[in-house]
Fold this protein.
Amino acid sequence: MKAQKGLDAAGITLPNFKNVSRELAKEPTPEPEETEEDRIERELHEVEDTIIELQSAVRGALVRDRVRWINAKLNRCESGIIGLQSIFRGQTVRALFKEHLHDYRTTVNWATMVILKRSELMVGSSGFERRCSAKRTE
């Protein structure tokens, strides 16, 4: 009683529990039914991690298949590629050799001309040519 007076003085009212059994006996309010779209979305969300793993596995398989296809194609073309590389390598070496041969011939021609000029000067001045021609006539 004292507690009730104190609650009344404070302005606090307690709920009436006399009708609790009657309220509990009532049927609960039905929850709203889930639509087909909501159900699909919920189920997809529940397995989202599995779907992502499956997509990753499929992408990996597709990439590996593509790499195998490219490797097989390169293996089929390998001899042709090696032949083409050989042709280019040979042309490069021949061009370099031709350039060096031209430089060599130019240098040899110049050196030959210098040696011949010097020898002509030496032969003409020493009389070596006259002596050689005299020996031939004997």
The two ends are 171 Å apart (CA to CA). Residues 43-126 form one domain.
